[in-house]
Amino acid sequence: MKVDVLTGAVIAVPSDRVAAYAADPTHAPEWYANIDSVAWQTPPPVAIGSRIAFTARFLGRRLAYTYEITAYQPGRRLVMRTSEGPFPMETTYAWEPHGVTGDRTRMTLRNRGEPSGFAALAAPVMEAAMRRAQNKDLARLKALLERNT
After folding, report:
1. Which of 10, 12, 36, 43 lies 20 to 30 angstroms, CA to CA, from 121?
2. Alpha helix segments (H runs only) across the chain
3. For residue 34, what is the domain's CATH number?
4. If we measure between CA atoms, which residue out of 29, 31, 34 comes closest to residue 52?
5. 75 and 83 in contact (C-beta within 8 Å)?
């Protein structure tokens, strides 16, 4: 069973600022509740081919995985993939100006992959947990950025 979770939020901050902050992996522990640490394996800044190691907690387990940036359009879209962790996964961030004056941002966060083995049996539970976590993370990002406006 495939897992595909798409969530979004409107953030009252211009898209260039939201994208610059969210696309910098060093900020991930500040707005992702489950990410404990981030370590660059290639020199910053983010570019196609960049590799970043993450440690996180999910469903009571500690996870360590490395994402590789596979697509990056600054201010518009970031795609990263990993073949590690509970299952191979692709994460996509997208940002677009929102509202009449463009002073807000519509950010979407999508995680998708195809678990195998035991993870495949737990896919419906994982998908629901991922959706809850993503919504909370986007709410945390929104609060953080709007507070610092």
Report:
1. 36
2. 15-22, 28-31, 118-121, 123-147
3. 3.30.530.20
4. 29
5. no
